[in-house]
Write a structure and sequence with these properties.
Elements: E1 2-6, H1 10-24, E2 30-35, H2 39-49, E3 53-55, H3 58-63, E4 69-72, H4 76-88, E5 92-96, H5 103-116, E6 120-123, H6 130-141, E7 147-155, H7 162-165, H8 173-188, E8 193-202, E9 208-217, E10 222-228, E11 236-241, E12 244-249, E13 256-261, E14 266-271, H9 280-292, H10 302-319, H11 324-328
Parallel strand pairs: 1-2, 1-4, 2-3, 4-5, 5-6, 7-10
Antiparallel strand pairs: 7-11, 8-9, 9-10, 11-12, 12-13, 13-14
Length: 342
């Protein structure tokens, strides 16, 4: 499988390392091509990261007939356009989270992929990691008894990063960071969400700087979630039962799982499998899907991508965080932006 990376930023380097590692491990995965907006940047990336070809435009990249999978590694605001570009040129796509700006855009590219019979999936890496099933197995085993709640957080001081604070780049804590606690909760508690309550503090540009939200599920379980671009948090996930609790160290790339009893004594520590850097699981899921003719990955089906986007749309609507591109697409009759539709 020849992998191409659309974009040459930091996250692209992480994916490049994963692809190289898989090839070194003997997998049929090749670091084939990279595309950037300037040829010199693409060539420097290709040389440093071991990719065979470099293109000075995204259009040239997706026109290469040898490309099997395009990884979209550009900022959130560009995911829709770049995913659409790749699909229109017959390429299978692995698109970095957050998948798109809102659920409306997500629905459009998913429909396009379905029409063209192409694989399209969201690169939200904890969905593909072995730790996901490990956590679910522990919950099902009743080692901590009946589970009724969890909490999770993710925060880094990122206000110095331009894309994080700019509304036109879909900035804010939610789409970049809050998406991880949200997915953590919905992986552990896969049932339907009954209610969402939330609040946020905005940055001076109008995007959310920090937020908290509580999900109440139809079965009565609750998830209390927090994300921030102002501070470093402990990145902890805690799943609570009537016989103890489970701690997941670092919810966006779990490092260790700890089980505690009612006396708050750690009774078991479970390491997660060694990895290249965690991105390899997404790549191998795409390879498996292509080999089996699947058009979505079971680890992150289209329905879950849409569901996560709808929750984030509803959160932003309640906070009054509307991106400029959404404002410009408001209907003439004043019914509101795409972010508010469910």
């Amino acid at each position: 499988m020849k992998v191409a990376i659309l974009g040459a930023g930091n996250i692209a380097k992480s994916m490049a390392a994963a692809v190289r590692g898989l090839q070194k491990r003997g997998e049929d995965v090749e670091p084939y091509a990279v595309g950037a907006r300037e040829l010199a940047r693409a060539e420097a990336f290709a040389k440093a990261e071991g990719f065979a070809k470099a293109y000075g435009s995204y259009e040239e990249l997706v026109r290469d007939p040898e490309v099997d999978l395009v990884y979209v590694a550009t900022p959130h605001a560009m995911h829709y356009a770049h995913t659409k570009l790749a699909l229109e040129h017959g390429k299978n796509v692995l698109c970095e989270k957050a998948f798109t700006m809102n659920a409306e855009q997500a629905g459009e590219v998913i429909r396009l992929a379905e029409e063209k019979g192409l694989l399209l999936t969201e690169a939200i890496w904890p969905r593909y990691m072995p730790s996901r099933q490990m956590i679910l197995d522990l919950i099902d085993s009743k080692v901590i008894g009946n589970v009724t709640s969890l909490s999770a957080n993710l925060g880094y001081p990122l206000t110095h990063v331009d894309r994080m604070v700019r509304p036109e780049l879909c900035g804010g804590a939610l789409l970049d960071l809050g998406v991880y606690p949200l997915n953590f909760a919905c992986m552990a508690f896969p049932g339907d969400i009954k209610d969402v309550a939330s609040t946020c503090v905005k940055w001076e540009t109008g995007v959310d700087a920090q937020n908290s939200f509580t999900l109440t599920f139809e079965d009565g379980r609750m998830a209390v979630l927090y994300s921030s671009m102002l501070v470093q948090s402990d990145r902890l996930g805690v799943i609570n039962g009537d016989k103890g609790y489970i701690e997941v160290q670092n919810i966006n790339n779990p490092e260790e799982i700890r089980i505690f009893d009612l006396g708050r004594t750690c009774i078991r520590t479970i390491p997660v499998p060694e990895q290249i850097n965690g991105y390899e699981y997404e790549v191998m899921a795409c390879k498996e899907a292509l080999e089996n003719g699947w058009k979505e990955c079971p680890q992150m089906p289209h329905s879950e991508t849409i569901r996560m986007m709808k929750v984030m749309d509803s959160l932003r609507k309640s906070w009054g965080v509307i991106y400029p591109m959404e404002q410009s697409s408001c209907s003439a009759d004043g019914t509101g932006s795409a972010a508010g539709r469910r």
